[in-house]
Design a protein that fits this description.
heterodimer, A: alpha/beta, Rossmann fold, Rna Polymerase Sigma Factor, Chain: A, eight-stranded mixed sheet, globular, B: 203 residues, alpha/beta
């Protein structure tokens, strides 16, 4: 299992950001698994989702739980680390060691908090590119990720097409719909409405915006599951009781479950990071630097691509993923598409979905054999 | 379906396709035909398949495949993107064979289409003598479970091409592994070819 590593990037030249401003000498925390071969052609870059991090296949230092994709990445797993060199960086703006709002601003020795610049998905990708350069890799064998990770994959395909041999964007979209933005705004408002948020300057305070962040997580969690999954898992079952309490305690199991999801989340995630990363997702539109044309955005892409969606995902539904496929088809690219039937909703890409695993494994292995 | 799984049929189709062509196989099954064409003709191949298990088999072979439906998903491709499109033994299972054929000749310069010939004498005889829907090695489903919606005869197919102003360039005779130029309806073909196979195009 991999140790967490931290590297300082952009030491000579600053990283210019989409929103103006720049970051210099920023940190990227990352993990690697397996070995880079002599030809340096076996690297797989895994991009994490909104609340993910670099602990893709090793135990999380705070929660002590298995890595978020430990079913997919590891020895003899669908992405086999006996064969591939897997790299997973924490995005900039994150809170697990990469430069973000809770890290110290070298210019004044204080936490960035809300002085951290608003960043975009493209900024995150430019930062990842510096890490790949640092690792001495000219061409990544495969870039993959789900949800926001899929957006990073699309941005890689658009911004650095010559560096990507193949790609697997999963359960994602070329931009955020009004519904996606609305859900993120709900989350941000709940954080900022918590008096303990203190305009983002809570790092030295006893009071942290735990309630706001917790409610944000609860709302988001609903969007990760399907109605069917919630119904079959919880229905109207009561939590440790036989009758209603006629109170506002957690009578129903679903309430108790969501509260648990909320308050365990605050131990491992920074509220300001949540604001910055959701903002980056809302701003994301892979066509934006190409006059709104998706065809233009991917015109130099030559990679072999597998797009994956899940039937019960209503956050990034099959229709959004098919839009991506359609663009790649229009360009005559080597694109495959598979829609996995499941009731697990958007979260399916993080769960035990054997057909999904089989698709990824078949794609990466056959693509590697045909290198 | 059993008919096209034999490599000898692949050979007839391969004869129609030049080296290095770009090819889409619609209803590509487990990708065997594309794999065959990749090996012998060095094609740049794509597949479309509705059955997810078969999509998985294609992915494992390194074949680019879209899980999709010929009736609805061919619209996504621009005009004449491919040199060749192939539709083997699938036309009769589509909801609208007419629009599928129109799409095939739109997205590719030439289309290769094969289908079971319902005009074959054995089928006629079976209906005539047994008064039952024919079930044979090549038409292996009972009437109540068949995925086939629109059976046609070789003559029906030729008429439809005429109606759609689709040009038939060549015809194939799979039992004799023979290709020849098309020169109109032919009594022998319509009675004795179990499978209709045609190379068609529309400018």
């Amino acid at each position: 299992m991999s140790e967490n590593k931290i590297v300082t990037l952009a030491e000579d030249e600053p990283l210019n950001l989409d929103g103006g401003g720049s970051l210099s000498k920023f940190k990227t925390a990352y993990t690697t698994y397996g070995k880079l071969n002599d030809k340096k052609n076996n690297s797989i870059l895994v991009c994490h989702a909104l609340t993910g991090d670099q602990y893709v296949a090793s135990d999380h230092p705070i929660t002590k739980k298995n890595g978020w994709w430990s079913m997919v990445v590891g020895p003899d797993k669908p992405i086999d680390t006996n064969k591939f060199f897997v790299i997973c960086p924490n995005v900039i703006g994150g809170c697990m060691g990469s430069t973000g709002p809770k890290e110290i601003n070298p210019e004044n020795g204080k936490e960035f908090a809300t002085d951290f610049p608003v960043i975009t998905i493209a900024d995150m990708v430019r930062a990842q590119k510096l890490l790949i350069d640092y690792l001495g890799i000219e061409k990544i064998f495969c870039v993959t990720g789900g949800s926001m990770g899929g957006m990073l994959v699309l941005e890689w395909l658009s911004k650095f097409p010559e560096m990507v041999h193949s790609a697997v964007p999963i359960a994602t979209a070329t931009n955020h719909s009004a519904q996606n933005i609305a859900l993120n705004e709900l989350a941000r408002q709940s954080i900022m409405a918590d008096p303990n948020w203190q305009s983002g300057n809570y790092y030295h305070s006893d009071k942290k915006p735990m309630k706001g962040l917790s409610v944000a997580r609860m709302a988001a969690h609903i969007s990760y599951l399907s109605k069917e999954a919630l119904q079959s898992k919880f229905g109207r079952n009561l939590q440790d009781k036989n009758s209603l309490d006629y109170s506002f305690d957690a009578d129903f199991q679903i309430e108790s479950y969501l509260r648990h999801q909320g308050f365990t989340f605050v131990d491992r995630f920074d509220a300001n990071s949540y604001l910055y990363i959701t903002r980056a997702m809302d701003y994301f539109d892979v066509s934006s630097s190409n006059n709104g044309s998706l065809i233009e955005a991917f015109k130099n892409t030559q990679s072999k691509i597998l797009c994956v969606s899940f039937t019960s995902d209503w956050l990034y539904p099959t229709s959004e993923n098919k839009k991506i496929v359609k663009v790649f088809n229009s360009l005559g690219l080597n694109v495959s598409f598979i829609e996995i039937e499941t009731e697990n909703g958007h979260d399916s890409f993080l769960l035990d979905e054997p057909k999904f695993f089989e698709a990824i494994k078949g794609f990466v292995n056959s693509t590697f054999e045909n290198l | 379906m059993s008919l096209i799984n034999e490599n000898k049929d692949f050979g007839v189709i391969a004869e129609l396709i030049p080296n290095n062509a770009s090819v889409i196989d619609v209803g590509c099954n487990d990708g065997s035909l594309l794999e065959y064409l990749r090996e012998y003709k060095n094609i740049d191949g794509r597949g479309m398949e509705i059955d997810q298990k078969k999509v998985q088999l294609c992915l494992a072979k390194g074949i680019s495949v879209i899980e999709g439906d010929a009736d609805t998903d061919l619209y996504d491709y621009p005009d004449k993107l491919f040199d060749y499109s192939i539709l083997t033994y699938t036309l009769q299972a589509t909801k609208s064979p007419k629009t599928v054929m129109q799409q095939l000749v739109r997205i590719s310069k030439k289309a290769i289409i094969s289908f079971p010939n319902f005009g074959h004498w054995k089928i006629g005889a079976s209906l005539l003598l047994n008064r039952k829907m024919p079930v044979s090695k090549k038409l292996s489903y009972s009437w109540h479970e068949t995925p086939n919606l629109h059976f046609c005869t070789i003559n029906d197919f030729i008429d439809l091409c005429e109606e759609l102003e689709i040009k038939i360039e060549k015809k194939g005779d799979l039992s004799n592994k023979k290709l020849s130029n098309f020169s109109g309806k032919n009594f022998l073909d319509s009675y004795f070819n179990e499978v209709g196979l045609f190379l068609v195009s529309k400018d």
